Amino acid sequence: MPVPGDRPVPKLSAGIREILTSPALRPRQPRDIPGSFVAPIPRSHSVANNEPVNQSDRPRVDVVIPCYNEVAVLRESVETSIALFARHPGFAWRLVIADNGSNDGTSELARELDAEYPQVQALVLTIKGRGLALKEAWTQSTADVVAYMDVDLSTDIEHLPTLVSMVANEDCDIAIGSRLAKGSQTRRSFKREVTSRGYVAMIRAFFPRLKISDAQCGFKALSRRAVDELVPHIQNRMWFFDTELLVLAHRNGMRICELPVRWDEDPDTKVKIISTAVEDIRGLVRMRFGIGKG
C-alpha cells in the first residue's frame, strides 16, 4: 500500500485555497509544569523548525475524524485538512474518516472522499460510539503517530502540525489540546465553560496526581507506544474514552503534554451535557474504585 502523502494532492477550489492562505504558525519554546508539559499557542510553524526534511524519514501520521451524521460539514473539513497536509510535507499524512453508525449519508460521502483523495481512508462502522470509532481506527493503524480532531474543526486546525510534532519530535507519549491552559483562546457559552471546569475539578478530586487542565478537548495525538500499550485496554466506547486514555497513560508513567489552543464552540454540537456528565461520573468511579460500568 503506498505511503500516504506520496501522491499529488488534488487541487482545491479557489474558495478553500483563499481561506487557507494565512501564514502558518510557529511554536515558542515550551516549558515544563509538574506532572505534564504545556506548550504555548504557536505563532508560526515551518518544516525547517519542527518537521523532518528528509522525505525518506518522514513520520507517518494518521489523523482520525470520528463522525456521526456529519454529512453537511464532512467534505469541507476533509478539504481543509488536505490543504493543511500539503503545506506541511514533513509528515506523511493520512486522514481517516471513522463513521460510526450514521444514517444521513455520511458513510456514502466518506467512501466518495476515499475514492476521490489518495490521502483519505473511509472506515465505516455500523455501531454508534465515538470512542469505539477512535479505538478501531487507532488499533488498525500502523502509523508512527495517530491523532484525532472533531469534524467541526472547533479547534483551530493550524495547531495540528505542532500537536503532532510534540509526539514525533519532543518525546511526548500523548499530546492534548487544552481550552483551559494558560494562553488558550476560546469562545463558548457560559454553560460549557462551567461544565468543563467542573469536570476538570472532579478529575483532580479522583486522581490528584493527574495534572491536566482539559481532558475532553477533541484534539489529541498519540505515539505508537501509547496506542499499542493503552488503547486496547480502554473500555468506554463513547465520550469518557478520552479521560480513560489519560488516566491509563498516567498510571503507566507516560508523558502527557498540553498545547493551549484556539477553540470556537460549535452551536450544532452532538454532545448532550447531562447524559455525558453521568457517563463521566460512572467512568471516574469505575477507574478509581474498580466498580460499576462507564
Describe the structure.
The protein is built from 10 helices and 12 strands. It is of the alpha/beta class and 294 residues long. The protein has a single domain, classed as Alpha-Beta Complex (Spore Coat Polysaccharide Biosynthesis Protein SpsA, Chain A). The longest helix has 17 residues. The protein is globular, with a radius of gyration of 18 Å.
Topology:
Elements: H1 14-19, E1 25-26, E2 31-33, E3 36-38, H2 47-50, E4 60-67, H3 74-87, E5 92-100, H4 106-116, E6 120-125, H5 130-140, E7 145-149, H6 160-168, E8 174-178, E9 185-187, H7 190-206, E10 219-223, H8 224-230, H9 241-251, E11 256-260, E12 262-264, H10 273-289
Parallel strand pairs: 3-11, 4-5, 4-7, 5-6, 8-11, 9-12
Antiparallel strand pairs: 2-3, 7-10, 8-10
Helix pairs in contact: 7-10
Number of domains: 1
**Extended strand count:** 12
| Known CATH architecture | Alpha-Beta Complex
Strand content: 15-25%
Shape: globular
In the sheet with the most strands, the strands line up as: 2-3-11-8-10-7-4-5-6
Distance between the termini: 38 Å
Mean pLDDT over the residues: 84
Q: Sheet with the most strands?
A: 9 strands, mixed
Helix content: 25-40%
What's the CATH H-level superfamily name? Answer: Spore Coat Polysaccharide Biosynthesis Protein SpsA, Chain A
Total helices: the number is 10
Classify the fold: give the CATH topology: Spore Coat Polysaccharide Biosynthesis Protein SpsA, Chain A
